[in-house]
Hints:
The structure is a single chain. About 30% of the residues lie in helices and about 15% in strands. With about 190 residues, it is α/β, with parallel strands linked by helices. A six-stranded parallel beta sheet has the order 3-2-1-4-5-6. The protein is globular, with a radius of gyration of 15 Å. The two termini are about 20 Å apart. The model has no long low-confidence stretch (mean pLDDT about 95).
Amino acid sequence: MNELQRQISRSNWSLFLDRDGVLNVRPGNGYVVSPQHFQWAEGSLEALAGLKKMFRHILVVTNQQGVGKGLMQASDLEAINRKMLSGIREAGAHVDKIYSATGLRKCDSFLRKPGPGMALEAAEDFPGICFTRSIMVGDTFTDMLFGSRLGMLTVLIGQGNVPSSYYHLVDYRFASLRDFANFMVKGIQNP
Length: 191
Ligand SMILES: [Mg+2]
């Protein structure tokens, strides 16, 4: 058993997941604007199914200001969420709830990561959530800032997107959600 497995096996931990670049293929600099554009990252559904056994709650927290910009409608985002949740169900995985911050960066600083709004909403919905017994998994420094401000452990997925001045906010680093899940579930550290 590795240190992280040991730590979370002691009490009920929750898992917060960013969406783009973690669960699904990052849409470049743009937005996933419809279910057709949403493409699961390789192995992410299997990873979710494995992680289900280890965490009390699994939540998705995603900034989607494409809605605020008018590039998609709230109904498009809802359709994407439905597609996600049905794929998750079919894979035998589980996500308690998907939280989205749809406002613009300049006027939604509380709800948008790194603001704490979506985590506070989740804690209200699921009183069993404790931030200091939670892990935030994301692919940008915004995710790392969000998690560390709330006292969560942070996991960075992928290579880039974090300026060196934010490295101290990163507790663990993996190439993909699949690698993180392998580490958590099987104790395997992929090279
Ligand atoms: Mg992301």
